[in-house]
Amino acid sequence: MADKSYERLLEGNRAWSKAKSASDPDFFDNLTRGQKPDYLWIGCSDSRVPANEITQTLSGEIFVHRNVANLVVHTDVNLLSVLQYAVEVLEVKHVIVCGHYGCGGITAAMDNRDYGLVDIWLANIREVYLRHRVELDAITDPTARTNRLTELNVIEQVRNLAKSSIVQRAWRQRGLALHGWVYGFNNGIITELDCVIDELEDLEPVFRFNR
Ligand code: CO
Q1: Into how many domains does the chain fold?
Q2: Which residues pair with 169 in a beta bridge?
Q3: Which residue among 30, 43, 52, 194 sits deepest, i.e. has the most Cβ atoms within 10 Å of its Cβ?
Q4: Within a domain: residue 100?
């Protein structure tokens, strides 16, 4: 007997569509006219971190890319395509990397188990650990250490965004702010990390492209 639990998703969709039309008769008409989101969200694929729900935003407000542990990898054509389209075509004003405490990707990167293919992806987090090894190794509480790696991982991904020619071109032409946030599903609160980057001067010279 095949599992039919998915049917509740379709039922939920129909109920949502009906309620949405009832409360805002123009809602779907507006969506068909196109999108002009101000924000690109790069978050974790984790089912507990839905971008719109936790920020109380609607369809059309946030352009979203999600992957395991919210990584910005310069060889990831998927992420780079999302970034390029969001920055150059949609002209978003803010790019937000949002990690979350209790991230399975971060935890997996810190143990030495073999998880298969995903380990190639998790190696990026292990590189973050290595870069901050002195600070992290000094934290004796395992949860506190994992939480700090979660924050440092977000900060490094924001820096990876800044290193891209897409972001640097946007800085020269108009302005764009990069943000690093961490969400906690223990209390539902997003914490802003002190890592906003909104100009080339925030980046080490070796990463700066000439105009
Ligand atoms: Co996660």
Answers
A1: 1
A2: none
A3: 43
A4: yes
